[in-house]
Each structure stands twice: as C-alpha cells, then as structure tokens.
Amino acid sequence: MSSEQPLSADVVIVGSGVAGSSIANELARAGISVIVLEAGPRVDRQHFVENFRNLENKPSYQGPFPAVPWARHPPNQMTPNEYLHTTGPDAEAYQQVYLRMMGGTTWHWAGCAWRYLPSDFELRSRYGQGRDWALKYEDLEPFYYQAEVMMGVCGPDPAKEDLGSPRKQPYPMDALPISYAAQQFRKLIAEKTPWRVVHEPQARNTRPYDNRPTCEGHNNCMPICPIGAMYNGSYSVYHAEAAGARFVPNAVVYKIERDDANKRVTAVHYFDPDKGSHRVTGKYFVIAAHCIETAKLLLVSADDKSPDGVANSSGHVGRNMMDHTGVQVTFISGDKALWPGRGPLETNVIDNFRDGDWRSERGAYLVHMVDDNQVDLATSLAISKGYVGKELEEQIRYLASHTVRLFSHNEGLADPDNRLTLSKTNKDILGIPHPEVYYKLPEYTVKSCDHTRGLFKELIGLMHGRDEQWTPGYFPQDHPAGSTIMGVDPKDSVVDGHCRTHDHENLFIASSSVFSSVGTGNITLTVAALALRVADTLKKELNHA
Amino acid sequence: MPETVRKTFVSLLVAGSILAGTSHYCAAADEPDAALIQRGEYLATAGDCVACHTRPGGKPFAGGLKIATPMGDIVSTNITPDPDHGIGAYTEEDFEKSVRHGVRKDGSYLYPAMPYVSYSGLTDGDVKALYAWFMHAVKPVAETPTETSLSFPANVRTAMAGWNMLANHNPPETGDSATFEKMRRGRYLANALEHCGTCHTPRNFILSEKQDQYLAGGPLDGWYAPNITSSKTSGIGDWSEDDLVQYLQTGAVPGRSQAAGPMGEAVEHSTSHLTDADLHALAAYILQVAPQEEEPGQKPRDSFGQATAQPDIRSGDLTRIDDVTELKGGAVYDANCAACHGYDGAGASNRYVPSLFSNSVVGASRPDNLIMTVLYGVNRTAGKTHAFMPGFDGHSDVQRLSDAEVADVVNYVMAQYGNGNPHVTADQVKTFHKK
Amino acid sequence: MLRMSRRDVLLAGMGAAVASVTAQAAEPQPAVSSDVTEAAQFLTLSLRLTDRETLSPAIGSALYARIVQAVPERKAQISQLYTLMRQSHFESAQELAIAAEKADPAFKDVIHDIMTGWYRGVADQKVVVYRSALMFDITKDAVYPKTYATGGPFYWTSKPPEVPLPTGAPGLSPSKFVVEPT
After folding, report:
1. Which residues of B are annotated as a binding site for heme c?
2. Is residue B106 part of a domain?
3. Where is each Glucose-methanol-choline oxidoreductase N-terminal domain found (chain A) (predicted)?
C-alpha cells in the first residue's frame, strides 16, 4: 500500500454528499487542488432504478441501496438496528437513515429546499429556547442563493407567496405546478381554515436545467428519481471532477492527525476495503461526512493529545443530537377522489406553524400532505379486509384514490444529554466502532407534536375522514443535526460561525452537525449554503496565502 | 408612419432580438431604412448564419465554432461589424463577393464550409438587406477566433480557387424575392437561404454537392442528414405539406420524426422563425424534389414498429450499491429509457416524449442518429417548447453508459421498434465520441 | 400485457385435462406436463378469483412457481381449491372465496397468496412482476406505477377520474393489516 504516490492537496474533504461535493466543485473551479475521500463506492443510477422495481417493500427508502461492508449505513429505520444503535426513552425516534456512497443521502431526499427563517438562527434571543447560531440569516443569504442555483431550485414568486425568508433574487426556476390532489387540499385549507398551503421550494427541474431533464412526475423522488430531474450530490461530484478535483471512493477515513501543538491538522488516514491504510496530507481539511459519521470520526480519532476526540475540548462533540421528529397519520377521505401519487412526492406545505410567539413554549413544525401513490398500500389493505375479484378491484380504486397521508416535521432542541457515542460492542469489518445514540425527546418537541396531532384531527374532520391510522409514537425524519454544534464560545461549542473548529485552525466541518437549532424546514439547503460559505472562506484564505 | 413611431418600432424590433441595444452603433448618416434592416434580419435567420458563426456560449456572429470536415476542423470567422476583427471594413461589394462567390476582401478564397455555393442564389436586393442588417444591427465583437489550420492541399487557400471553379454554384435569382410565387419562393428558401443541400445532399470526391442526388442524404459530424426527397419509401414522400411545416416550425411531428443535433439547431435558430407562408412554400418545394430511391422494397423510416407488451417478470433480487456492472440491451432500456419513453416504447401520452415506433430515427437503416441521440441527447427550443433529453455519454450527470451499453440499447431499440438489429458494436460507438 | 383470448382461457380451463392428454400423446414426458397442468390449474383458479376473463399465462407460471417454492404445501392446497371450484358452479370470486373459507380456513391464506400475487405482483415477499401487477392495470386511468410515468411534465395538474364508494362485500374474513416497517 505504501508504493503508491502520497496523496496531498490544498484541501482534503471527507465525504462526497451535497456538502463535500459542492465545496470540492467550488474550490476546483477556482484552481485549488482538492481531494475528496468518500467511504462508499462510486455508484450508478440505473442499478438503483432496477433495485427499486425489484424491491418488495417499496416505502423503504434505504431498500434500493444495499450497503458495502466497509462503509455500512443503517439498513432501515428499525430498532434494534444492525448499524445505528439507539437507546434511551425515545430510541425509535432517532433511528435515522442515510447513505454512504458517492453523492450521499441526497440520492433519496424529496428535494425540499427550504431556506431557514431569520428567527431560526436566533432561537435563544427571540424565544429563550435552545441556542443561537454564531451567524445571522443575512450572512447566509448569498450562499442560499448560490446553493439554489447549484442545485436548481424551483419555487414561488416571492411577491405572490412570501415564504418568510427574505430573498434578493427570484428562484432559479418557476414553482412546480401542484397536483390535482394538492390543489384540492390547498383550496380546502384556504376556504375552511385560517391557514394556507404554499408551494414548497424544491431542488427539482421545472424546465431543463444543468443538462438534466424536466420532472415528469414519477412520484419516486424517494428512494430514486429515475431520470435525474431532482438534484443529488453526485452531480456536484461529477462537476468537481470535471474541474480537476480528485475523487477517491472506498476510502474510509478513521484518523485525523494533528501537529505537535494540536493546533493544525496535518493529515487524515483512511482504510481501503482491504484495510490497507493510506495517509492524505493537505493545507486545509473539511469533514463533510453527515451529522452522525462526522461526530463518529472525530470521536474515533481520540488519542493522547485529544483523549475525548478531535475538536472536542468543549466535550460537545456528539452531543445536542437533534432532528425533525415526525407525526404521521393516514386516513380515508370522505370527499371526492384525490388520487395522490400524481407528480412529485412533496410539493405542498402548511407553513403557518413555522414561527410565532408560541415558540417560547413549543417547537415549530411544517405539515406536508404527501402526494404519494397509494395503490400498493390500498391493495394490501383491501386484501387484508378479505376482498377478492371484482369487489377487490373496486376497493383498490377507492382506497387508492381517497387515501390521504399527512406528516409533520417538528422542531427538536439542542440538549447535551442527547448524545452520540462509539459502540463498545459493535465494530465494522475495519474495526471501527458503530455509532450509538441516546435519545430522549425534548419536552419542547413533544408539545409541538401534541399540537400537530390536534391539527391533524381537525383536518381529518374537515375531509370527512375515517379509518385513521396513526404511525405509533414518534418517528425520525432523517434530519439529524447538532453533533458538532456551532457557537461563539469554545467552551460549549465545537465550531465557530464559519464552521471552523475552535480547536484546530485548519479544520472545518460542513454538515448539519453544526446546526445550533434544527430550524423549521428540511435541512439540505442550509447544509449546502453553509458548505458554500466554507468554500468561500477557504478560497479567500488560500488565495491570500 | 410618423418618424417618432417608426423609431420606437425600430428600437422595439432591435430590443426584441438577440442583439438588444445595438442601435447606437449605427452611423446616423447612412442609416438604411428599418424595413430593409428588418428584412435583412429575417434573411439572416432563414440563412441560419448564426449556426456556424457563433461558438457555444460565444457572442452572436463572433465566430469560433469548429466545423469538422474530412480535411480537418474549419473555424468559423467573426462576421460582426467590428472593423478589425469582423467585417466592419467590408463594403457592400466586398460583402457580396464573400456571400455569393466565396471570395474574401483580401482576395483569398473561403473554405466551402461557408455555403456560398448556396448563397450564390441570393437576389441582389436580399444581399443588400443582409449587408444592411449585419452592418447596422449586429453588435460588433472585438475578438478574432483561432485560425483554421487544415492539412494539405486544403491548407493552401488558393487551392480553394480551383475547388470554387469546379463546385456547383446555385444560379442567382433575380427580382424581388418577396414577390415570388409559392414554388419559386420555396426553391429560393431551400437553396439560396436554408441551404438544405449543404447537409442533405451527398458530396462527390472533391466534396462538392452531387446535384444528381439532390437531398438524397449525407453524413454530418456523427449525425446523418437523411434522404428528404419525395421518395415514398426512402425519403419523406409519405409526409404531407402540413407535416413538414409542423416539423420545421416545432422540430417534431409525433409519429414521424423529431429534430436533434444540427437539424435541431436549424429548427431552433432558423426554420421555427419563418413565416407560415414561407414554411408552406419551403415544404411544398421540398416535397416535389425528384425522388431518390435507396433500396428496392424499402419501407418508409417512420413506418416501423408498434407498442410492445411483455410482462415484466422479475427476479426480485437486488444488487449492492457498488455493483456497476454493465447491463444488457433490454435492461439498459428498462432502467434508463422506459421511465420517459414507456416500457412499451409509446412515449408520453401528451407527446412531450416521442414514441420509439413510428419514428424515423429508430426506423432508419443507419443507426447513426440513434447512437448520437443516446450519447448526446436532444436540446432544442422552438417557440416556447424546450425539447430535452439528457445524453448518456461519459459526461452525463444522469447516467454514464459504457460504449457497450450504448451499442446494446441501440440494437435493442432498433430490433424492438425499428428496422431490425443493426448489430452495432462498442468499437463503432467509440467512433461517435466527440473529439 | 400478453393476454390469452377468451377461447385460450376456456381451453386452458377445460383444462389442463385436454392439454395433458394431448401432451402425452405427442411426447412421452409426463413430468413436464404435470407442471404445465398445475400452472394451468393455477391460472384457471386465478381467473375465477380475479373475476377476469384473461390473465397472462407467463405471469401465472412465474407466480405459481414462487408461491409453491415459498410454501410447499400450497401445491396440494391449490390443487384442492381447484377441485373445490370444479365441484360446483361459482358465479364470482366472492362466492368461491366464501365457500372455500367455509370448507377449510387454510384456503384463506391460499387465496391471499393468489390475490397478493396477481394484484401486488408479489409472492414469497419477492417482486415477481412490478409494473405488470393488476393493481396498476385497474388504476391506469389515474396513476402510473412509480418510475413509469409517461404523462409528460405537469400531467398531474389535471383532474383524475371520480371513484364511487364501493358497495360489494368481502369474500373472506378480515385479517390484521400489518404495515411493513421502513
């Protein structure tokens, strides 16, 4: 293994999801040498499309992505889980799924590309809850736009539908026309309630964009868009490679090496699938390996100089684990046929519960009327009810056209006791411990979920619903955040407002792990904006040097 | 028209074109009237000058596009009115000599990538209008594209004089082209402006168009410009005038064909901007061109295939994420094409995506255009419609197919929906890669 | 989908008896014809249980193979259910299902397997057919199987068909509905 050329670059990035790949692309285009180390393999869309079609349990978003043994990811959201071990009173509510491979978890997101609200960055000072970020909305605004252009985000005209996050430019693409089902839902909410349904901003093409086609409504954003109409991190990997970045797949980083003073990172070490070890040196290092894997890597890198893990003088690495916890209900509408499942999965949102004075008491939330094809579920349900033949067919048509699914994203809160640690008993084939998370839902989130249940009951009534099926307990929304929390004080936070670790001047973190609050929208656009801001900082420093 | 109104009209006209805000370049003293400039603009569009004289991402008419020829790459020149880098110093006579006779201001001969053998058919009045538009409405660009460097003997420009003598020139038309009756107008549009024959007419050993095989088809930079004579089996004799008008206006006739590659560009930049009357004239003329038969017993390109109806019996087995082994034809189709073109090949119900049966590209005897489409996709805007299919070559963000997979899926599609399996190999696909 | 004509179906229905006699007369390989017979019986049974006049024999064979591979006793059960169907005249799937469950509660699971196979395209918790599953055939005027949407961009804004409230009764007793974990 030592016979090869030593790997070295100006910037070494760990992880090729939306964060790592967009930094790589920006830097490579500025002529800076970049190496991207990805734990998982290089992958191909066509095999995922076929895997999906061969998958029996179609709602399993991890299903089409069977992991490689050297870079495992959680196989499903079940507890106990073979990889991500969760404990505590709400262990099931933290059973996050994610993907370790080229492009990362954006292979199976729904493209929801929310900017956070200005208040999301000031939760403590405005509402006395949680923490403030070490940056303001205005600091991130230009990078939000840059991220929207990079991904190709469609959204409503702010003059017609203000989503609460001030914009200097319009969305790169016009809003996606919503489905008939969503139109009916929007009408109902407008006519019968004080609330509103808005067009969700989405990283999805409403016209040909970036050499990718217009969305054709395959209704399969999760787990796999079959035509590439939705953004995923692999495009940024390709663009970075075309600009000269070096992409190294199957490189599982397991150690972050520092200088004698423990002030600067000097190298990272990775295992290849055969456990051959390789050292990669650079001037700057960015860990962009997903909230859970990033904290795991910092902890795994503990040594005499940093006995509690790298960048962890505060003791906050792995703490403050947050998520958007979900409440979900499925029911049969008593009104006219809606036929959900025509068009993309998530297109419309009730956004009235994103912000308000009540945030001093309970968490914010978004409500999606999920536009998910219900034919398979309707069929299973009708068979279980005992229908056969002609009557079965009538039932399937009725249930598939009248089933409504609502779910929410409820705001979590930073609590140091919700903590990721290294498993003492479970290790992968390379000998790296599995991650383990203790989770207890914050009271703030529980209150928010209770409020959501009340709202859902009201909506079920408005739609003359019956046969309601509540997903038991609380479920994870796969938006983990907080494990390397941002703050101004190095004593109680891991990174500063530029995502630079307090402890090591050339080590940055690009991930939702830096979030100080989990915010009121899906996390991805904010991850991308923060990453592009890191790229901007690195460009300035490298060009200055 | 009162003067103020006319000025507004001119500035609106100019602002509405791609050459917005250029009126201040016009010398007030010898400014030609707006009608002449407007006519020149329409003629330049019909002649599709922009197609060759603009490089991808470049400024309009500043040249720099590489045009592949058997002699090497020819680089198009700057024809903006910049005096140093473009044709700003050209008099109307200089302009006429280049456009109609292929002779530059310095007396040297142009390479015949410039279709002056077609433009030679322009009327005097239309050359004047073109000159007026180029000199007064096109925005000057101060940049010189790289020089063309060809291999011997073509690198000797004087050799081009000999070629020029031997080549077939289109005889000039006379009179006011706007008043020509339909068929004469159609011939004028086809030959003097749209220069259809430049691509669709095969060339002889000196690369001059073979006039006895007018519009019988020829290869073009990987693509194949098909036989568009009135042959009912080898050409487009089974098309109606309305079909052809629709094709030239929108780039697609569902159930017959659609334009991609250079024809997509011709539709986008030129034919979709023609008036209805001109489109009908052009179509009527093309549809009466003498038929050129290829093989006896041939069926029309757009008459092959039908929707397929096989059940998708599956293994139910999944592959690991690092499994990127090559798929076989039917599987490549299912995983990459079926989402839009349908598992049955029928395309989208609203015709946004074409069917693969009853499709000239799939029913052609040559696989060239299908290979090029799979590799490089379709990207054509006509009016408000942007037809787009991603490419699947080694630079695709959607899916990078291997040459073997491209060959396999082309063979599969042509066997299922076209004129039979062409047995394309991976090595053949490789020859279609853009350099 | 490749469908049998009504005549083919009748032929297959009469069965298999005719087919196997012919097969035996033509070529002396009874092992092959016994599989053919079973698949033909399965198809005939399936036609009654789906209230359909045509079904794809290719899908039928694939489903049958998976079902009996997963639960070997299904082989005998399907044959018994076929015999039960032959013994009386059943006007509908519902009639047959009611009679079958009454005769032997185990037939309920057999019928569930057959329904799950044809309508969901699943047997032995494996996908046998995806887009060709009957659940998509009966909803094709409104929705597409995921990854096979060919309505063109924004087709989803149009109004889908209305669906009346069904009035028919089930043929089997209800079972617990279990949603698979994701």
Report:
1. 49, 52-53, 196, 199-200, 337, 340-341
2. yes
3. 239-325
Give the domains, in start order, of chain A with CATH numbers. 6-542 (3.50.50.60)
Could you tell me if B343 lies within 8 Å of chain C, comparing CB atoms?
yes
Residue B216 lies in a domain: no
Across the interface, of A62, A397, A402, the residue whose CB is closest to C139 is A397
Q: Which residues of A touch C164 (CB under 8 A)?
A: 398
Q: Do C152 and B353 touch (CB under 8 A)?
A: yes
Per-window interface: A 395-414 vs C, CB < 8 A: 395-398, 400-402
Torsion angle defined by CA atoms of residues A408, A412, A417 and A421, in that order, rounded to the nearest 10 degrees = 60
List CB contacts of B292: < 8 A, sequence separation 6 or more.
Answer: B213, B214, B215, B216, B217, B227, B229, B231, B234, B235
Residues with Cβ within 8 Å of A61's Cβ and at least 6 positions away in sequence, in order, are A97, A108, A222, A223, C182
A422, A435 contact by CB (below 8 A): yes
Residue of A nearest to C48 (CA): A389
Among C1, C131, C135, C150, the residue to mutate for chain B (most B Cβ within 10 A): C150
Report the alpha-carbon distance of residue A201 to residue A348 in Å, rounded: 9
Q: Domain ends where: B138, B172, B206? A: B172
DSSP result, B189-224: IIIIIS-THHHHS-B-TTS-B-GGGTTS-EEETTEE
Please indicate whether, in this complex, the C-beta atoms of A392 and C119 are within 8 angstroms of each other: yes
Measured CA to CA, the distance from residue A318 to residue C100 in angstroms comes to: 59
Are the CB atoms for B36 and B129 separated by under 8 Å?
Answer: yes
Closest chain B CA to residue A228: B398
CA distance B122 to B118: 8
- Side-chain half-sphere of B147: how many Cα atoms within 13 Å? 4
Active site residues of A: 479
Tokens standing for residue A212 = 């990718």
The enclosing domain of B350 has a CATH number of 1.10.760.10
Q: Is residue B188 part of a domain?
A: no
Q: Does the distance separating the beta carbons of A43 and B321 come in below 8 Å? A: yes
In total, chain C counts a number of residues equal to 182
Domain count, chain B: 2
CA gap A107, A98 in Å, rounded: 10
Q: Are A314 and A502 in contact (CB under 8 A)?
A: yes
Closest CA to B79 of B119, B57, B52, B102: B52
Q: Which of B141, B172, B203 is at the close of a domain?
A: B172
First to last CA, chain B: 53
Range of the domain at B398: 302-430
Question: Chain B residue with minimal CA distance to A56?
Answer: B316
Chain B neighbours, 3+ Cβ pairs < 8 A: A, C
Answer whether 0.90 is exceeded by the pTM. Answer: yes
Report yes or no: B311 at the C interface, CB cutoff 8 Å: yes
Q: How many CB pairs under 8 A join B and C?
A: 56
Taking a C-beta distance cutoff of 8 angstroms, is the pair A456, A329 a contact?
yes
Given an 8 Å threshold on Cβ–Cβ distance, is C94 in contact with A391?
A: yes
Across the interface, whether the CB atoms of C150 and B313 are under 8 A apart is answered: no
User: Looking at beta carbons, which residues of chain A come within 8 Å of C66?
Assistant: none
